[in-house]
């Protein structure tokens, strides 16, 4: 049976985020559900028209209508309130402008998340996996050297969970400073692997 050794390694790679998502809510009140819904849609259209950066894209991800008579501490005296939850996709450099423009249009910013294009994420993950595997080999070589053995081929690789560090801002911070110049931190991707290596007797020259 060919001797073998199994070691673990961790690799980490990072890059500055190149995408951002700003979550905004638009509301509309009315004496009926239909009126409230139309008011919310008009409000969302006003927010979309307020964006001045051509690359910004806004999409509706959720719509809801609340009968305020059954609500606990309703935010409006109207019988119905409709809400549209919007997401503005933009680049990190324009986040501050998006926050100002949407809040000036009456929208409420809920959160800001910075992330990476999928192609960049895959590239970082591949690099982190390569670094993790190399780290596992270094560990194996140190252990093998004690027994005067040499590490050769990889027999098996088992990947652990991918860890991605993200940065976001939530509404509590935005309430105090809606015109903050948001500065994202790098997005880090960490990979852990367990690698099984074959061993052979080290040559006399090693």
Secondary-structure map:
Layout: E1 4-15, E2 19-30, H1 33-50, E3 57-67, E4 80-90, H2 95-104, E5 108-115, H3 118-146, E6 149-159, E7 163-165, E8 167-170, H4 171-176, E9 187-201
Antiparallel strand pairs: 1-9, 2-4, 2-5, 3-4, 5-8, 6-9, 7-9
SSE-based structural type = alpha+beta
- Here the CATH topology of the largest domain equals Translation Initiation Factor IF3
Number of domains: 2
Helix content: 25-40%
Strand proportion, as a percent range, falls in 35-45%
Mean pLDDT, nearest integer? 87
Cα distance spanning the termini: 23 Å
The gross shape turns out to be elongated
By CATH, the architecture of the largest domain is named 2-Layer Sandwich
The number of strands is 9
**Radius of gyration in whole Å, from Cα?**
26 Å
What is the H/E string? EEHEEHEHEEEHE
For the largest beta-sheet, the strand count, sense and barrel status come to: 5 strands, antiparallel
Description of the molecule:
The protein has 206 residues and is of the alpha+beta class. It has two domains: 4-16 and 118-201, 2-Layer Sandwich (Translation Initiation Factor IF3), CATH 3.30.110; 19-115, Alpha-Beta Plaits (2-Layer Sandwich). It has helices spanning 33-50, 95-104, 118-146, 171-176; strands spanning 4-15, 19-30, 57-67, 80-90, 108-115, 149-159, 163-165, 167-170, 187-201. The longest helix has 29 residues, at 118-146. The protein is elongated and about 85 Å long. The two termini are 23 Å apart. 27% of the residues are buried. The model has no long low-confidence stretch (mean pLDDT 87).
């Amino acid at each position: 049976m060919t001797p073998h050794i199994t070691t673990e390694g961790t690799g980490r790679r990072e890059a500055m985020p190149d995408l951002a998502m700003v979550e905004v809510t638009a509301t509309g009140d009315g004496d009926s559900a239909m009126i409230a819904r139309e008011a919310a849609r008009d409000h969302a259209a006003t927010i979309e028209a307020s964006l001045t950066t051509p690359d910004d894209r806004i999409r509706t991800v959720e719509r809801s209508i609340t009968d305020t008579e059954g609500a606990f501490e309703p935010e409006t005296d109207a019988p119905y309130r409709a809400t549209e939850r919007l997401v503005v996709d933009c680049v990190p450099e324009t986040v501050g402008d998006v926050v100002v423009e949407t809040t000036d249009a009456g929208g409420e910013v809920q959160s800001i998340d910075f992330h990476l294009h999928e192609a960049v994420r895959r590239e970082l993950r591949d690099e982190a996996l390569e670094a993790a595997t190399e780290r596992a080999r270094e560990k194996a070589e140190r252990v093998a050297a004690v027994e005067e053995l040499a590490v050769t081929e990889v027999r098996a690789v088992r990947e652990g969970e991918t860890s991605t560090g993200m940065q976001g801002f939530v509404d509590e911070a935005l309430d105090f400073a809606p015109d903050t110049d948001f500065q994202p931190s790098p997005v880090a991707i960490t990979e852990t692997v367990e690698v099984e290596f074959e061993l052979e007797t080290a040559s006399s020259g090693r």
